[in-house]
Amino acid sequence: MWKEIRDREVGKVQSNYFVNRIASDRISKIELSNNKDIVSPHKGAVNSLQVDLTEGRYLLSGASDASVAVYDVQRATDYEAGGLIAKHKSIFVVDKQHEHGHKYAITSAIWYPIDTGLFITGSYDHHINVWDTNTTQVIMNFKMPGKVYRTAMSTSATSHMLIAAGTEDVQVRLCDITSGAFVHTLSGHRDGVMTVEWSTSSEWVLVTGGCDGAIRFWDIRRAGCFLLLDQSQSQLGRRPPILKRSMATKDSTSKPYTKQRAAQRKLANGNGTKQSPIGKVPAKGSARQRLHPGMLSSHDRATAHYGAVTGLKITEDGMYLLSAGSDSRLRLWDVESGCNTLVNFETVRLQTSKPIQLATTQDSALAFVPCMRTVKAFDMWTGNTSVTFRGHYDCVNCCCFSLQDQELYTGGNDRQILVWSPSKLIPDEMNERPAEDQDNWSD
Question: Where is the segment annotated Disordered (predicted)?
C-alpha cells in the first residue's frame, strides 16, 4: 500500500488508477459491519433503499408500513460499546399518520438526482408523491391507474424532469415535476410493468420490464419501443473494444461496399421497386420489414424471461443490462445489439411476487442480487458467485451500493437495514500508540 502511495506521489502511477485500485481492494473485503448500525424505525418490510447521488451521505428507505425515513450514514447520532459501534438513527420519519402520507405499502423511494431537497415515493395506494425534504410536506401528487411498483428518474437528464412509473397497468407513464401532469404514456406491454430503469448513457432512453416477461427500450421522444429483447437471440463473449469495432467499420465501408451501394441505388431509381421511407406503409409487399419496431410492439411476442421481469440494472457505462426474472434467472444483455450474452449465472432462488432492487459496483465488476434470505455478489462477466452475504432473518428485497464509501446497504422483510462495509485492515486499538512512543515536538 505504501509503495503505491509513493508511486502516485512521484507520478509513476496515475491518480485514477490508484483510486480504482483502492476501491477494488475495499470492495473485495466487504462484510457485515460490526461498527456501524442503521436503526430502522420501520414496522414493515423494507422495499426500497437509495443513497443520494450528490453527497453520498443520506440514505432513503421506504417500507410496507407506508413509512419513509432518511438517515445520515456519515455522521452517527449515538455510540455504543465504548464508542466502537456507531448508531445511525433516522433524521425524520413520515408514516401513514402524516396528513398527506401514503395509506398502503411504499414500494419505491428515490432521491431527486441533483438535489437532496426533494424525494419521490410510490405506493400501492395508487399515488406518487413528491416530497420537500426540509418541510416533509407533499408538494406534488400524481394519481396512477393502479398499484405503483417502481419509479425512476434519469441521473443524466439535463432537458427534462420526468418520473417514469411502472404500475399494474399495461402502460408506462411519465410524470413531469415542472407541470404536475402526465406528459406521455408508453404502450406495448401486455401486462403490468414491474420495473423501470433509465439509461445511464442517454437521458431519452427508458428500459421497462413487465409481468409479461418482456424488456422494452423506449426513446421517449417518439412513439413505440425501438428495441425488444429476445432471450433466443444471443452472442458469445464480450463486445470487442471500440478501436477494433471502428477499424471493422472502416474496412466495411471500403470501395467495393461503395460500389455495391451505388448499384442498389441505381436499381432503385431504374426499373426496380421504389423504396419507401422507414415508418411508412408501402403499397405492396411485406409491411413488417419496413415499419419501425415500435409500431409492431402490440404484435411482437418476444420475451426476455419465462415469467415476470422483477429487476433491472444498467451498468455505469450504459453498455450492458442485467435483468432478473420470476423464473429465477439472471441474464446479461448487450444494449447495442440487444442480444443475450449467455453469461451463465449460478442457479439462484429469487422472489416472484414483488420487484427486487439490484445494485452494481462502480466498475460493474460485481452485481449484488437479493436471493431470498441472502445477497449474492456475482462476477458480472463470468456469472460465478464471488461472495454470499448472510445476515437477514427473512427475504431480502433491495440492495443499494454507495460508490463513495464502498458500502452495501440491504433491506428485507425482517424490517432491518444492514450495512456491509470493508473490513478494517488495522484495528482501532493498534492506531493508538503508547504515550512513551509518541513524539513531543514541543521539546
Answer: 239-288
Could you give the CA distance from residue 229 to residue 341 in angstroms, rounded to a whole number?
Answer: 12
Q: Model-level pTM?
A: 0.79
Q: If you search the block for the grid coordinates 445489439, which residue do you land on?
A: 337
Options 2.60.40.1120, 2.60.120.560, 3.30.40.10, 2.130.10.10; CATH for 31-236+295-351 is 2.130.10.10
- What's 112's DSSP letter? -
List residues bridging with 127 in a β-sheet: 143
Distance, in Å, from the CA atom of 392 to the CA atom of 45, rounded to the nearest integer, reads 12
Contact of 45 with 397, CB cutoff 8 Å? yes
Report pLDDT for 30: 87
44 within 8 A of 67, measured Cβ to Cβ: yes
Residue with cell 427486487: 356
Distances (CA, A) of 201 to 207, 247, 314: 12, 23, 10
CA distance 106 to 121: 7
Q: What three-state secondary structure class fits 267?
A: helix
- Residue partners of 79: CB distance under 8 A and separation at least 6: 85, 86, 87
- Model confidence at 362, pLDDT cuts 50, 70, 90, reads confident
Q: How far apart are alpha carbons 213 and 265 in whole angstroms?
A: 41
Q: Give the residue extent of every domain in the chain.
A: 31-236+295-351
Phi, psi of 181 (to 5 degrees): -135, 170
CB environment 45-76: b (16+ within 10 A), e (fewer): bbbbbbbbbeeebbbbbbbbbbbbbbbebeeb
When mean pLDDT is compared across 97-111, 230-244, 303-317, the lowest value belongs to 230-244
CA distance 259 to 261: 5
The CA–CA distances, whole Å, from 237 to 111, 211, 252, 339 equal: 36, 29, 22, 11
31 has which bridge partners?
421
| Of 107, 141, 118, 123, residue with least CA distance to 53 | 118
User: What is the residue-averaged pLDDT of the chain?
Assistant: 82
50-67 pLDDT tens trace: 999 999 999 999 999 999
